[in-house]
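Structure request: Gamma-glutamylcyclotransferase AIG2-like domain-containing protein, Aspergillus wentii DTO 134E9.
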Amino acid sequence: RHAVIYGTPLKLWGEYPVFLDEDGEHIIHGVTCEIDSWEEAMRLDAYETEMYLTTGCLVYFDDGTQTCGLVYYWVGDRAFLTDGTFDLKDYLLKKREGGIYNSK
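Returned structure:
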């Protein structure tokens, strides 16, 4: 579900967007998902690696509703991060066309 949170502008770790756990009023557009079990949460934590931890945030939806959520934020070395922008539609299109990964 499309939503926004507020924070500092995203950084990039390679091609991946990175959220920093800092106060800010920058609107960050994204997509939410609902985690239905502890096992799912643990699988997601393992996928995100030790470079991230979670913190609570308010999530604002397009229909005006809001909820409490969690966001993964960067705890790795900031020297690995660069300034840049991330567009999910562009990323998915490049991935599908093989511009990011070979599908072997």
